[in-house]
Amino acid sequence: MANKKFYDDFYRAFYNKYSSYDELPDYYIESKTQVANHLFSFIKKKNDILSIGCGIGLIEQKLSELLEENKALNVQNNKIVNKQKIVAIEPSISTIQWIDSDSVEVVHGLYPGDIDKKIKFDFVYAILIDYVLNNTEYLLLLKNIVKSGTREVYFSVTIDSPLTIVNKLKEYSLLLLCAFGIKSCGQLWGYLRTVEEHKLLFQAAGFQTISIGRYSDGQYYIHAKL
Fold first, then answer.
1. N or C: which end of the chain has fewer CB within 10 A?
2. Residue 153, Cβ neighbours under 10 Å: how many?
């Protein structure tokens, strides 16, 4: 399984190749922008927001820009403006280098141990972190969110698609070659779950209302409330 050192090395190479969000591939920016726009519809009236495992922080940057635009519009229309803040936590110290926003606070560490327990978050979201967690870790994360007092979450998740017969044969052949030491199995990237497996974990954590949807690029999201 990829560990912290793996990701530190990965991001070191990443930042040697790219120097700003604008240099990233168009398809990647478009995908993350789509997620940010959808997320914004849930957080635009929230005050304290937590992002778990924010990676390079592109979604946080996009969300902060949307929140600033919304704030300016409310001021223009003489509406009450609340102080909104995103706390973004990420284990890798080499990850977040490009965020430029007063409304985003970056914390290097792990949830929940490195988060200020005095803050009661109105909303928690996580983008594609499920694949690094086994079922025990995944359920514990969800239970810790519930325990903290947060009642609404949003997870963008990886979904396991049924393999074709040909792909199954290829996979079994690779596993057999690995077992005999003929071929390297490579780096385990993470875990895949079906939609139902994700749903069962959210239910086990205590979430009562669970909505599952897809973006136009096929990626799935889960929006859940207690």
1. N
2. 26
